[in-house]
Every structure is written in C-alpha cells, then in structure tokens.
Amino acid sequence: MTDATDAQLAAQYEALPYPARDPRDEAKRLVVGSPSHLAEVDHWVFGARRAAELPLRALVAGGGTGDGAIMLAQQMAWAGRPGEVVWLDRSGAARKVAEARAAARGLENIRFVEGSILDLPDLGRFDYVDCCGVLHHLPDPLAGLRNLSSVLAPGGGMGIMVYAPHGRTGVYMLQDALRMIAPPGEAPAARVDLAKRVMRHLPETAWLRKNPWISDHLPLPQGGGDSGLYDLLLNPRDVAFTVPQLDALVRDAGMRISCLVEPVRYDPDFLLPDPKLRARTAGMGLVERAALAEALAGNMGIHIAYLARAEEPELRADWGDASAVPLLRGGDGASWARGIRGGSLPITYDGLRINLPVPPLSAAILARIDGKRSLGEVARAVEEGGAAPAAVARDMAALCAAMEKVNRLLLTAPRGP
C-alpha cells in the first residue's frame, strides 16, 4: 500500500522526528492530552465498568516521539494499574527519543516495536488502541483503521485524532505555495530552510497569519520548531476530515463513534440560542448536529474520537450508580467551584467561549469531588452541609451531565473490595 509519497513521509520522520521532544524535560512535566488519557479511556471506552485490577494492554500505533505512550504508561504506573503499553512506529529516530523519555521516567511498562500500521506485526490483541495524528497521513486511511480494529480484543476500543479542515484555514494554501518553491523531492533540511525564508516574508493577507489556533510552524518553545513546521506545511500527505467524512471512514471500518471530544463543542445549541433555530437543530441526528457545530465554529483543527466496534453493545458511564467514583480531569474541585459565575462555568475552546449552565449546588458538589469519594459519599457530604436530599440529587444529576459534556468530570474504573 506504500507509494512514492509514503517514502517521502518515512524520510521526513527519520530526519525530523515528531513532535520535537527533549528527554531531559521529563523531569519537569508530563505531556498530557487526548486521546488516551487514562481517565478518558476508563470513562469513554469502557463506560467506567472495566475493573482497575484487570491488566490493560494498549497499542499506541504511530507512536512518534512518545507523547501518547509515555502519558498512558506513566498514568498507569502512578495509579498502580497492571498492563503494558506497546509503542509502534516505523521511525527509528522517533523510537530513540521515545525510549530515552521512558528511561528518564524509569517506566518499565512500555515495549517498543518498529513496524507499520499498514503491515502490522503479530503483537496479539489489545484492550485499547491509540492512533493519534496518523490516519490522515496514510496512503489508505481505511486500510489502516481496519488493520487496527482487527487487533482489538472483545469489548475493546480505540482513540483517534485526525485533522479537521475548517480550523486549519491557511495551512493548505501555504502547503500549495511551498510545493512550488520547495518541491517534495528535495532534502528535508533544504525544504525547512526555504520554508523559514518564506515565513519571514509571508504577506499580511495570508490566511495562516490570521489563524491564531495554528502554532506548530513557530519556533520552539512557542511552536513545534523545525519538525513542527515540516509536519504542518511541508508534509507530503495531509488529508483533513469533516465530521461526516470521519463518521463514514469509521463506519466503513466496522466501527462507530462513541464520543467526540469534547462533546459540548459538537453541540450547535450552545452556538444558536435562538429558539427558532433550536427547533431546526432538534430534528437533526448526532452526526448532522456535530457537522453543523463544526461548520459554525470554524475553529476545529482536529477531531478526537473514541471508537467501538459497531456490533458490540454501547457502554455508557452510569451516573446513577452511587458507588461510582467521580474524577475531575484537570484542576481540583475547589478551583472549579471558584470558577462559577452567575450560575455558569465559562469554558474556552480555541477562542470560542462557552458559558456552561450549572445548577445552584454545583460549587458545594465540586468542592467535595476528590477522585476518592463515591457519588453517594459526595451527595451525603453536601446534605450534611444543610442541603435537602432532593435538591442534591437533582443538582448532582444536572452537574454531572453538564461537566461530562466538557470532558471534565468522568467516572473512574471500579476497584475491587
């Protein structure tokens, strides 16, 4: 399935491993994101029903310099979760960086394997597969997705990220220009030099200069340095997917979308408060509503999705289970409580501000969520503070529904007695 463009792509990642990472930085911070954050995998893939004691086998396909693999393996280690993360990529240069990062952290739950998604080595079955920022570079994205779905264990799921067109406004215009002045057949170093020269003289009218959400082409540390510039503007193959195109790809691979991250971004009602307009959106299906939100917002440069096999039953986290333990993904409960203004939480996504309505007892509830107390224990603690049980039940249900939509309140994997 490889072609001349694929050979150029392979040469790119050998010359400029992506993303640019220094193993010495592992002592300072853990790069965290989506997909494959352990809390998200527990919640969106397994519906917070898969026991934490069960070993988790995860494949990070197209692992690059290691962001996804390192994040998941470190989170598993910190949580004392058994299992293995298998890093897979065909770039030996990227492997060296990823291995050095794992060594800097003393991680022993990662295995490194060089290989291609389009010609998968025999690695067994996986409970979870990550494919972040890879499918849009493949000569055949559908074949790649089908290959990955074929190694999923029963009940397993995937986390993917693909480029989206509207938020990348300006990128493809500049790619066209650079193909003329820095042809793909030239060496990566020469192309980077030419691209930098172009960027120094980029007209004010160039759309990329007006797109504040794209920064990979900027120098480190603000952007991605040379490897980021090459990946964004000189990449020989870069295909973006709208929501309907992504949904079609996933369906053709025998999968379905379980969640688009963050769900609230794909809800057009937050963008269209007019009742007459909402009457129209109410008759739309999930994909149609998401496509409308994507087209209206204009700032989505990527789509992150969790997938499941189409024929398997849908797993949703059960917020009605009083024994389930809620976890805030990012920040602590007290900080979230302090952020409430006039009955809403302001949340910003790539310049788009959303005021998330929250119920009256939200501050009291959030302040008591610590990742250890169950939903039932949180409710009792709020009641002990003087709130009526009926009001607590009502407001907890509303708050959980609201904050799940922004991917900030999730349920953890259940633990045995």
Automatic annotation (TrEMBL):
Task: List each copy of the Methyltransferase type domain by range.
Answer: 61-156
Q: Keywords for this entry?
A: Methyltransferase, Transferase
Taxonomically, which superkingdom?
Answer: Bacteria
Does the keyword Transferase belong to this entry?
Answer: yes
Pfam families recorded: Methyltransf_12
Q: Which GO terms describe its molecular function?
A: methyltransferase activity
One GO term (biological process): methylation
Official protein name in the record: Class I SAM-dependent methyltransferase
Organism, per UniProt? Pararoseomonas baculiformis
